Amino acid sequence: MGTHPTEEGATGTPSAPPLLEMSGIVKLFPGVKALDGVDLDVVAGEVHCLLGQNGAGKSTLIKVLSGAHQPDEGTISWDGELVRLHTPTAAMRLGIATIYQELDLVNDLTVAQNISLGHEPATLGFDRRRDERDTAAALLLRLGHPEIATTAVVGNLPAAGKQIVSMARALSRDVKLMIMDEPSAVLDQGEVARLFHVIRDLTANGVAVIYISHRLEEIRAIGDRVTVLKDGRTVATGLPAKTTPTADVIRLMTGRTIEYVFPPRSGHAFTGEPLLEVTGISRAREFEDITFSVHPGEVVGLAGLVGSGRSEILETVYGARRFETGSVTIEGKALHAGSVPSAVSAGVGLCPEERKSQALLLDQTVVNNVTLPSLRRFAVGPFLRRHKEAQAATREIETLDVRPADPQRDARTLSGGNQQKVVLARWLLKGCRVLLLDEPTRGVDVGARSELYALIRELATSGVAVLLVSSEVPEVLGLSDRVLVVRDGRIVHDGPAQEIDESDVLGLVMEGSSR
Fold this sequence. Notes:
Number of helices: 17
Structural class: alpha/beta
CATH topology of the largest domain: Rossmann fold
Strand content: 25-35%
CATH superfamily of the largest domain: P-loop containing nucleotide triphosphate hydrolases
Mean pLDDT: 87
Distance between the termini: 38 Å
Shape: globular
């Protein structure tokens, strides 16, 4: 690929002049040096992958590049000329488009309106709505999703649909560099394949792509070169994406070798009365006749494609959706359909897929987030015993090793892995007996994943019944005692995790039969 892998600040020499060159980028926040001299160069027509643990500086770097943050030191060159990206508009004028992991769509507008936002087709001050819809439809077709209606309200779309709309909006401009932050996190395998087709189409036409992902198999499939960040510094650049050993990448990201080892299963058979029992529940156009049980100490995984109904099943057990037939019971006591308070009172806790928008109060402290469902414990009449509340929250975040261990820190400032620990701490404090986990390691780096795996197993060992959903089949198989495979809203397999492998699961979810 014309570059030589280099480490610890050395610079590889690209085979063509860089379209983008960032040199010595420093970004300071109160009490934190988020970037400490980052170097990055990107060549037109390449997929340049950016790797690093949560907190390594990836998000800050792309916000500097997109004009959302201003660097305190360092230079940015675009096509050989020094530039200052004072605003996101300045970046977009150069042809830099960013698709953030936390999508910045307007939920109350239609798909077409979101795609054309900021550059609406107009004549004499009047928007040309038909042209807007036609352009949106063409972009959605290019992305392989013509089924998304241009008139649909974005807030009503599933997470995967919103991701597609965000990509279409980026493509609606004259793009020279597209930045994708965890673009596949909410996509199924077919959608990821279509995404890669679009990326290859872009690079074939000279567009550069910066691709951020925690999934190393994606980096190998789509990437050309890799830059690794650690603690706000560039520790390696010019690594060949397809041939650099995984162990080397992990060592650079973490400073140590991490084995992808799941904690051992309990090893005993789960007999007796189940803690959670779901019997014949159905919801029109989502799932039908779902029946399964989870025993105390058991981890049951739901495997299936995005849109198969797996997340909807979790949300229905939690009461966020109302089942139309069937029943959900905890220790034989039926829960009220569509009632979150009923589920929480019975000891059910949910860590949702979108933790930032659905679970956390980002601008509130860790204490406030942890104690949210348990406030009655700290109330005396109309007053809260703040000292007792802080003590209880501190115990839980210390138990889960939330870093930094500052209960007064805003949840927004934590890395993805530590935010997930805060959500877990909430349910530990509440004393939940049934824990529902939807994509528990989404957007979490490899080091924090190992910690979360151990925490989930420890919770199960303590007697909690765990039901989890993950898009990563190895994660479902490695964490679970038993696996349910969901296809088109039906359970097509229910059996011990050690008796099914990844190819079996993929055969079941894609074609309805295993090998």
